[in-house]
Amino acid sequence: MSTNGNKATPTSHATEQGAVPNGIKLPIYMDNHATTPMDPRVLEEMLPYFMEKFGNAASRNHPFGWAAEEAVELSRERIAELIGATAKEIVFTSGATESDNLAIKGVAEMYREKGNHIITAVTEHKAVLDTCKHLEKLGFRVTYLPVQKDGLIDLDDLKRSMDDKTILVTIMAANNEIGVVQPIAEIGKLCRERGVIFHTDAVQAIGKIPMDVNKMNIDVASITGHKLYGPKGAGALYVRRKNPRVQLVPMIDGGGHERGMRSGTLNVPGIVGLGKACAIAQEEMAQESCKMAGLRNRLKDSIMSRLDETYINGSTEHRLPGNLNISFAYVEGESLLMGINDIAVSSGSACTSATLEPSYVLKALGTGDDLAHSSIRFGIGRFNTEAEVDYVADRVVETVQRLRELSPLYEMAKEGVDLKSVKWAAEAH
Amino acid sequence: MSYSEKVIDHYNHPRNVGSMDKASADVGTGLVGAPECGDVMKLQIKVNPQTNVIEDAKFKTFGCGSAIASSSLATEWVKGKTIHEALEIKNTEIVKELALPPVKIHCSVLAEDAIRAAIGDWKKKQDATKPAEMQAR
Questions:
Q1: Which CATH superfamily is domain A25-38+285-417 in?
Q2: What is the CATH number of the domain that holds B26?
Q3: Residue A114 burial by CB count (10 A; 0-12/13-18/19+): exposed, middle or buried?
Q4: Which one of B20, B31, B36 makes the best mutation probe of the A interface by having the most chain A beta carbons within 10 Å?
């Protein structure tokens, strides 16, 4: 996604008008699927591990090492508890991309003799899709399941795609663009029945919605700290140890850390932060997700009640509480971001992407390219307020109205022209 | 993505936004781009048939900030020029004036196309209304 990063001095609308509502500090951050700000409680817990408690967790024969190891093991327990796992099943990594790579390549290589078929979905994150493409070059066969209009995979499709060579199904728990939550428990059940390993990229879901590796029959799951108010550069992979025991071929060889699955000196402060972030989520998730959904619905209602021809992308029912992804017909996404440059959100518009292609996720839902160009992703997080939501809604509505007055497409649509029937002369592309 | 101050100025204060009667004989309309590509520009010119001078220009654009700025600038530049002079406007001059980065050059190309399309539309109307012997000359 292209993000709102207008580096030129923003002529802030609010300062131009001289009226920033009380309690609002600009710019407003509402892009919590990209990353979350760190919770101050997380930072507080991490700080001692930079200076006083700097030991290497692998140093077995002095108190510096013991202190670091103790902190790492507490984090392991905290992460495990949040997803219903045991501490020994948590392997620390540098983040989501590494976790996805280790899970998919590690399983593929380990179980190659058993089969060479992998199933994933077209709306997965690039960390999964590009890893699968890499494996295709090595002779693996990959099925990319389509999604339905609401962004969910069809379980019958999955069932039909499985054959006796299928070794791995990798389907994300919640999508990073549209927040759609896949039927993870149902997928897990299907995989378990057929003896296929099930990996889920759960980075957007963990800490936001309940995830239980046993109830959902998940065998491998990717986790990262910075999507749940923890630090960047700290991630984990859940790897099932029992019923069945899953084995991985490591991507990084070395000192045999993390039961040989991921060598390298542990990032102790980062791991402490990830653990604390999980502990906070465990405590507060139920209440917080209710608040997030309330703010999200307030934003949605405020925008959609005032603007016609706006469309929500993806299921409204099976969705992360803090996610809203809307297409504003007749308005191009990047120009909309430019108009609301005191608000940090993302767009599925192609305009700033290197490929000049709009979001592949929205295209997979069957959203036309025109509406994909017109999409904005709002990611509401722990620190957003009602006042911020109201401010964002007002700014979006007035900017869309202004840009529609500027839009030849809006004018044509109002005149009754069917835009689909127009013969467009697109020489520039 | 960082924008030049000129792009931001045109985006915040677009010049000559609006529409003219596309049925009028003196008005030429250019509609270029495509919604699925993320840019559509409509540029209209009103030409004095005696002098061939573009007396007024209007635009509406669906597209990114650079596309809006390119078309806004194009209307400023064509105003007061003769048809012949307006055809001399090159997209590279728009790129230079707005300091467009390489990834946005297509916006300037589209603006040049829009000028040409509007002039082409006007010429077609003129040819249709002029007596046959005038065309032959």
A1: Aspartate Aminotransferase, domain 1 (3.90.1150.10)
A2: 3.90.1010.10
A3: middle
A4: B36
Position B133 in a domain: no
Give the model's pLDDT for residue A179. 97
Helix (H) or strand (E) holding A364: helix A360-364
Q: Please give the average pLDDT of every successive group of 10 residues along chain B, which has 137 residues.
A: 90 97 95 92 96 97 96 97 97 96 93 97 88 51
Supply the pLDDT for residue A14.
46
**Exposed, middle or buried: residue A74 (CB in 10 Å: 0-12, 13-18, 19+)?**
middle
Domain-located, residue B135: no
Q: Cβ B109–A428 below 8 Å, yes or no?
A: yes
Contact B3 A8 (CB under 8 A): yes
Beta strands A310-312 and A323-328 are: antiparallel
- Cβ contact B105:B99 at 8 Å: no
Q: How far apart are CA A56 and CA B36, in angstroms?
A: 54
| Model pLDDT for residues A76-107, shown as the tens digit of each residue | 999 999 999 999 999 999 999 999 999 999 99
Structural domain harbouring B106: 5-124
Fold of A41-281: Aspartate Aminotransferase; domain 2 (3.40.640)
Which segments of A28-83 does DSSP mark as H helices, in order?
A: 40-46, 63-83
The residues facing A92 across adjacent strands are A236
Assign A349 a pLDDT band (cuts: 50, 70, 90): confident
Domain tally, chain B: 1
Contact present, B108 and B70 (Cβ < 8 Å): yes
List the domain boundaries for chain A: 25-38+285-417, 41-281
First to last CA, chain B: 52
For B35, which DSSP code? G
Residues 22-81 of B with CB under 8 A from A: 31-42, 60-65, 67-68
- The angle at the Cα of A137, spanning A132 to A143, to the nearest 5 degrees, equals 40
User: Which residues of B are catalytic, by number?
Assistant: 37, 107
Distance from CA of B51 to the nearest CA of A (A): 29
Separation in Å, CA of A348 to nearest CA in chain B: 11
